[in-house]
Amino acid sequence: MPRQPRLVVAGYPHHLIIRGNNRSAIFYTEKDRHLFIDCLFDVKEDTGCLLYSYCLMTNHVHLLAEPGRKDGIKRMIQSLGRRYVGYINSTYKRTGTLWEGRYKSSVVSKESYLLACCRYIELNPVRAKIVKDSSQYPSSSYSFRAEGKPNKLLTEDPVYRAFGNRPSERQRLYQKWIKEAIPDGEWSTIRRMTQRGGLIGDQNFFNRISNILSRDIIFRSRGRPRKDSEKQL
């Protein structure tokens, strides 16, 4: 069966996941992480993409990127692969692929899910029980948004800027917000739609993207997936 075309919409955030082949490591040292960030900065600049959030785990990467053109993300990931995989193979005397097949992606509503995706990404090390608090994990965008530390990779998203007029106010409110209880179904929706290559948003967002792409997109309401027994009722 042919693969379904990937949903890509210029001017909208996309949640991306890049995994190591067979879930193997893609970072071996801190030098690797720094080199990856340098490569990512170069390719996002070259392809006209904005980056709002990221987290570098040992065997996978989360990115929240906004392409300025339809082929922006594809070109960014391809260029990143050529540069970073080439570095890893040369440094560690290995051959072959580093990534696990195609990267996962979903288109994200700025209004209802942009900050939710940032929280999902920056809490990844906490969910994995690597750290107790996002502030303890340096390889993510948390310190940029919550602590005001400069980061050449990142652009302040419009939803975050609406938190307050002063940087200190935005940082304080973001720290408070990221520690709030996660609404039911939020994480499962983000995870499921990213794995499926879908949309993350409400019905209005689905309708808007359907009009932009001139194709029907089925809306799935937020919440846990139904069990097979429930589907039969």
Number of domains: 1
List unreliable stretches of 5+ residues. Answer: 221-233
Give the CATH level 1 class: Alpha Beta
The CATH superfamily is Transposase IS200-like
The radius of gyration computed from the alpha-carbon positions, rounded to a whole number of angstroms, is 18 Å
Q: Residue share in helices?
A: 40-55%
Described by strand count, sense and barrel closure, the largest sheet is: 5 strands, mixed
Average of pLDDT: 90
Distance between the termini: 30 Å
Distinct helical segment count: 10
Strand content: 5-15%
Question: Biggest sheet, strands in spatial order?
Answer: 2-3-1-4-5
Question: What would your notes on this structure say?
Answer:
By secondary structure, the protein is of the alpha+beta class. The chain has one domain: Alpha-Beta Plaits (2-Layer Sandwich). Helices cover 44% and strands 12% of the residues. The protein has 10 helices and 5 strands. It has helices at residues 30-47, 72-91, 110-122, 124-127, 142-147, 158-161, 167-178, 186-196, 203-213, 228-231; strands spanning 14-19, 50-56, 60-66, 104-108, 199-200. A 5-stranded mixed sheet has the order 2-3-1-4-5, sandwiched between helices. A hairpin with a 3-residue loop joins strand 2 and strand 3. Helix 1 runs antiparallel to helix 2. The two termini are 30 Å apart. The relative contact order is 0.15. Residues 221-233 have low confidence and may be disordered.
